[in-house]
Structures are given as structure tokens and as C-alpha cells.
Automatic annotation (TrEMBL):
Residues 13-88 form the RNase H type-1 domain. It comes from the Eukaryota. This is RNase H type-1 domain-containing protein. PANTHER family: BNAC02G40300D PROTEIN (PTHR47074), REVERSE TRANSCRIPTASE-LIKE PROTEIN (PTHR47074:SF11). It comes from Protea cynaroides.
Length: 109
């Protein structure tokens, strides 16, 4: 169930779909206000090697769009991304770490 962010904040939800042919894979994110209004929705076909990499790409793009708008609320249900963020050091999937980068992770703090 989707829960709204606090008043005067936004929430970014991300997802990725990996197809049998990675060239047909895609990412997406949406940004919603505290009242649930859709502020921005983006989907894009991309070539990536795993769902975790796809979610990292979507998360990075969604976060950067959110920061550009002046907000800092972010949500993902990707356990691997959450674990990587909690570690705050380059552990696990280095491709994912390089996509997110320490600068992007610090914005989430």
C-alpha cells in the first residue's frame, strides 16, 4: 500500500523490468506530492544486466530529478539497494555502487 510523504515533501517510487533480451529492458520512476498528486512520471528503455542495476539506474534518475526540484524523500523496495545504502561503503555489486555513487547516497541522508 502506498503511503504519502509528509506535507511539503514528495515521494519517489522506482521500478525496473529486465527482459530476456536486456536491450528491451526499462526503468521508471514517479514523483508524487503529499496529497498523492502525480508531479512527474518517467519511463525509459535501457540496456542493463540485472534488476538491481535497473533499480539503481531508476533510483539515481528519480533522486536527481527530486533534488533538482528541492526535495529529499525517496523510497525503494529493492533490498539490495537498501543494504548498499546502509553500508555506506562500496560493498556488494560495484556496478550498482558506481551508478549510485557516494554523492547520490549522501543526498539521501
Amino acid at each position: 500500500m502506498w503511503l504519502p510523504p509528509p506535507v511539503d515533501s514528495v515521494k519517489v517510487n522506482t521500478d525496473a523490468a529486465l527482459q530476456m533480451d536486456p536491450a528491451n529492458s526499462s526503468i521508471g520512476f514517479s514523483i508524487r506530492s503529499h496529497d498523492g498528486s502525480l508531479l512527474l512520471a518517467v519511463s525509459q528503455s535501457l540496456h542493463f544486466s540485472s534488476v538491481v542495476v535497473g533499480v539503481a539506474l531508476a533510483l539515481r534518475r528519480g533522486l536527481l530529478a527530486t533534488v533538482q526540484a528541492g526535495y529529499k524523500i525517496l523510497e525503494t523496495d529493492c533490498k539490495e539497494i537498501i543494504t548498499l545504502y546502509a553500508a555506506s561503503s562500496p560493498t556488494g555489486d560495484f556496478v550498482v555502487w558506481s551508478i549510485l555513487g557516494i554523492g547520490v547516497l549522501q543526498v539521501c541522508s
